[in-house]
């Protein structure tokens, strides 16, 4: 078995190679990989438990990194073609009148169940990043990401 300090050392060793804004997520994925490795470890195969755990930690970290690297497309960004410029919103069609009539504040009321969630959405609307939101709310970046996941789930239910 690995001690907590060994697990922390391995996960930190893996996470340190990634950009700072994603390290918490990578660290968590690496720990998840180590836990899976501990369940699957077979000492009769010849590899040490640390080597085996490191391989799993790297694999899970890489999967998390790939998930975060997926590009985001802006509906308002102007793309150029030989026929001129266009936006993705134009390609997808005209704006739905019902959707346009939904006010931002009423949407926030439906999505944010707690006062700090409302404040988080306001900060994001103002253009603040995750790190700045976390600092303004006195919370960690991981907390902000978890709240955003919850809000995203609620928004998918509304749609």
Describe the structure.
Helix 2 packs across helix 3. Strands 1-2 form a two-stranded antiparallel sheet. A hairpin with a 2-residue loop joins strand 1 and strand 2. The chain has 9 helices and 2 strands, in the order H-H-H-E-E-H-H-H-H-H-H. 67% of the residues lie in helices and 5% in strands. It has 159 residues and is mainly alpha-helical. The protein folds into 2 domains: 66 residues; 64 residues, Arc Repressor Mutant, subunit A. The N and C termini lie far apart (46 Å). It comes from Hydrogenobacter hydrogenophilus. InterPro entries: RNA_pol_sigma_r2. This is Sigma-70 region 2.
Q: Strands, helices and their partners?
A:
Blueprint: H1 4-15, H2 23-40, H3 49-69, E1 78-81, E2 84-87, H4 88-92, H5 97-101, H6 104-111, H7 115-125, H8 130-137, H9 141-158
Helix pairs in contact: 1-2, 1-3, 2-3, 7-8, 8-9
Succession of helices and strands: HHHEEHHHHHH
Report helical residue fraction.
55-70%
* Low-confidence runs of at least 5 consecutive residues: none
Reported for the largest beta sheet, the result is: 2 strands, antiparallel
In round numbers, the mean pLDDT is 84
The radius of gyration is 21 Å
What gross morphology would you assign?
extended
The total of beta strands comes to 2
**Class inferred from helices and paired strands:** mainly alpha
Give the total of domains.
2
Kindly report the spatial arrangement of strands forming the biggest sheet: 1-2
- End-to-end separation: 46 Å
Instruction: Count the DSSP helices.
Output: 9
Beta content comes to: 5-15%
């Amino acid at each position: 078995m690995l001690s907590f300090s060994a697990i922390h050392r391995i996960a930190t060793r893996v996470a340190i190679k990634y950009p700072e804004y994603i390290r918490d997520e990578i660290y968590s994925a690496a720990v998840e990989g180590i836990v899976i490795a501990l369940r699957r470890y077979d000492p009769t195969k010849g590899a040490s438990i640390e080597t085996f755990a490191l391989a799993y930690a790297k694999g899970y970290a890489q999967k998390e990194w790939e998930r975060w690297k997926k590009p985001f497309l802006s509906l308002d960004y102007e793309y150029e073609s030989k026929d001129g410029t266009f936006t993705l919103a134009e390609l997808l069609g005209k704006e739905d009148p019902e959707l346009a009539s939904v006010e931002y504040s009423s949407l926030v009321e439906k999505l944010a169940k707690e006062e700090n969630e409302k404040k988080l959405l306001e900060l994001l609307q103002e253009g603040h990043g995750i790190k700045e939101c976390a600092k303004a709310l006195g919370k960690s970046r991981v907390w902000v990401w978890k709240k955003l996941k919850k809000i995203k789930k609620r928004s998918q239910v509304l749609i």
